[in-house]
Amino acid sequence: xxKTAISDVTADSxxxxxxxxxxxxGRLVRAIVxxxxxxxxxxxxxxxxxxxxxxxxxxxVRWMVDRVILVRFKEGRIDISALVVGSVLIVGIGLLRAIGxxxxxxxxxxxxxxxxxxxxxxxxxHVVAQPVEWHRNRMTGDIVARCxxxxxxxxxxxxxxxxxxxxxxxxxxxxxxxxxxxxPLGLIxxxxxxxxxxxxxxxxxxxxxxxxxxxxxxxTLSEAVHESFDGVLVVKSFGAEQRETQRLAVITSxxxxxxxxxxxxxxxxxxxxxxxxxxxxxxxxxxxxMRVRTGAMSVGDLTSFIYLFTLLVFPLxxxxxxxxxxxxxxxxxxxxxxxxxxxxxxxxxxDIRVAPKPIAIFLDGVTFAHNSESNVLQNLxxxxxxxxxxxxxxxxxxxxxxxxxxxxxLIPTNSGTIALQxxxxxxxxxxxxxFAETLRFNITLDASISNEQVTRALQISESSEFVDEIGAxxxxxxxxxxxxxxxxxxxxxxxxxxxAQGRSILLLDDTTSALDPATEGKIVRNxxxxxxxxxxxxxxxxxxxxxxxxxxxxxxxYLRDGVIVDHAPHDVLISRNAEYRELISAFEHDRxxxxxxxxx
Length: 600
Fold this sequence. Notes:
Blueprint: H1 3-33, H2 37-75, H3 80-129, H4 132-136, H5 140-147, H6 149-154, H7 161-181, H8 183-230, H9 232-237, H10 241-293, H11 299-340, E1 353-354, E2 359-368, E3 377-385, E4 389-394, H12 400-407, E5 415-420, E6 425-428, H13 439-444, H14 451-460, H15 464-470, H16 487-500, E7 505-509, H17 517-533, E8 539-543, H18 547-550, E9 555-560, E10 563-568, H19 570-576, H20 578-599
């Protein structure tokens, strides 16, 4: 391929890219204007009034120069009638222009703010509607960035857009007026418009890649910072502050470099945009003076001409500002749409059926695998009656936690049936999450739960004593993630939360692992009494590894390699199942070993 052909291909590619970017900008504007069209078009109307009045103000200047100022210099008198008419003309046009400015700015601001809020609400609603499976595959920091930084970036174009529309009106009206006043000077002035527009388009083509890069790096930084703050205890425990700082510094440096390049291009662009109108203005004054000397135009014509062109310099800059915001907004909008365009995954809860009485939990042929990996649970079936307290026992990796997540409706089955008694499920995780709110909020989650119910839940979870010792009551603040509490205290608060919600099924995923055996035993007994004596017939399923806790259950389901291989009361399983007996012995050995280590 020869050089000419290569250059033709390059030129065609550049034109295609430019058309693509303009099409992207057009789609962006159409999409975001639909959110609040009334505010947007009111701002456009105000901008149009401003544009027409800006051009009309040059007529008032022309009138005052020719009918008042020149008459005063030439004839030594003041034409009162001309002065009054000119004053009314200038003041009236100025008032209308001011009204247009107020309307444009007010409603342009409302459009931007309300649209940003609406887009953010859409993203948050979509994210909240996604099931847990979707959230597990996403970085929290990235989601936060798309709800905040990217949503704000996508509407940045709305602020200059109404003014930019008025510039187009102004260009058409002013071009017609300047060509009417003086054709040669008008052609020179109008010729500046396509030059400035070409510069704006060239500017956009060069800068948009840096805005896209910067927006992506901003999302990456948000992910990394959020992850670093989440893992602050790990970072500090292993003395990794310097390494973590260096990791964030690398991301920040990439973001800085992208923005510096964008700012450098913008600086050159704005300098050129300043220089060209100023040079053209000088040329218009020189040439206009010559036209006045020959009598081709009056002093008032030249004055209004220069006045109008000067007024147009700043509005023409707004087009440049608009073009500079387009890449930024398009980049933000793309990241927002990536979330909004993802289909909502089916909520696993919708597949859970209602179990017939007296069954509380029924699983038939349930199979589950993470992605395409080997099955975690394989053709698993079990049935638990209402009001029972059962334990799920198995070695590490046998599928205990996965089983609880399936029953809770957090993840979908690959096959099989799950049926539950009405009344909802409360799942308490081994790693308890505590909000940086009051104790009352952490237990009620802002639901309508009385203080009596909260107090009762604290008593059942054996939390009342340490809460009373702290002394602040239900209004004490837990601090961020409850870091002021011990692991066992956090677990008991999380358990109290599940109890207070009044669900009919309570799932405990090794929830009491951080407690001493005596406290753990009290809690399990409290739960058994609650399920026996309470009218709600609470059903409790406990994943446990402490033999003393397992022995308190009405029934034990022994899970091995994703299959329930045996179930019976603890003492029966101990006597008849050698593998179960060996597993319990291993639990006892590990517990004694850990205790000896703690004592030493």
